[in-house]
């Protein structure tokens, strides 16, 4: 008794606490027993008296022991043992937290605050390109009245507008009970995971994929398996292998202007993917948040090709910015009911305010024209960017941008490590290296829409310098 095991990674006072609790729990110390005096304990433990005092103070606070004037320190005879742990070890707990950030991202977050930084990392349009709409001046009561138009599937006027858009833009024949309005596409995914999957299930995604960086899968206990992309999109041969070996329960793809590669799945590959989904009865979730930013004609969506097998996700975030947080799920009506119920159960109700704002924008008679202007502007930015980028094509490989927000560049020279990418941060050029989306350390994603006449030259200057430095490595 009274000897510590000397666990180096735990502070001594905590070791003392743990030992005393252990003695109380296993009956070596009984309720009402008196502990040796502090000075004596310090001697036997070979520690300073203050360390013992610290440990005893904590045990008093937790209710294991009591100090009685004139009688010394006694094991509590009351509700002792209610608190099973001496103290929550926050540092240890947070160490395996799924929300913990990559070191690169921690540094990047700091740089994002600096006005000198060029932010090509953020996955949204810059403010000056987001179409603006005149909002009517609502009275408070009017807004509250709009609340009555909320259903479990969302604010009904917005739901109807989105149904119309899906029919027109996606050529998907949907009815309103097949569409659930969500707080962005991310909430849509979160709900799908909750309702369709269980802890330990496996999901196939593209490799690289922005989903790789989202903590929602790990926190739900879902395993992600990456399937390589080739020039046509997700490789179905690899996917089939995975289905056969890993019991894949869901295929989650972003087939149009994929995040991060910007690549669009070919029609042939879409059909092969659907065939595979039918063969093994595995649902496909089509994350389709970029298709309205296309400079080229697109192949039909997976949902259009296979309405029964495919769950379709959309969002307004890529046009209006993510602060509006409006997305949707198009799926079989029974599933929609389950998803809506799940949302109510976890109390993720959707506020009417952003939905009213989104409805106003979608109803604007100039909406389509503004969207077209945006697409034209992006196309021009993409061409200006590519023109300059060609000058660096000995070192960087890239594909023409056909829409969406991203350019994906791959380093052609010697292997890069994660550390090498910090050069970009040091130069205050904020980009997204591929290791945020996969195990790859050779590519980067750039949100080219954030480059304009003013900062394009600055960007290429810095990019050239970094390229030269990387070549010398
Ligand atoms: C491919 C893709 N899907 C979904 C989302 C999430 O969209 P939302 O802002 O609507 O939650 C993003 C956002 O970056 C995305 O890039």
From TrEMBL:
Has UniProt tagged this entry with the keyword Transcription?
yes
Which parts form a coiled-coil structure per UniProt? 368-395
Q: Where is the HTH gntR-type domain?
A: 10-78
Protein keywords: Aminotransferase, Coiled coil, DNA-binding, Transcription, Transcription regulation, Transferase
Is tRNA-binding tagged as a keyword? no
Q: Which Pfam families match?
A: Aminotran_1_2, GntR
What Gene Ontology molecular-function terms does this entry list?
transaminase activity
Query: Would you tell me the protein name for this molecule?
Result: PLP-dependent aminotransferase family protein
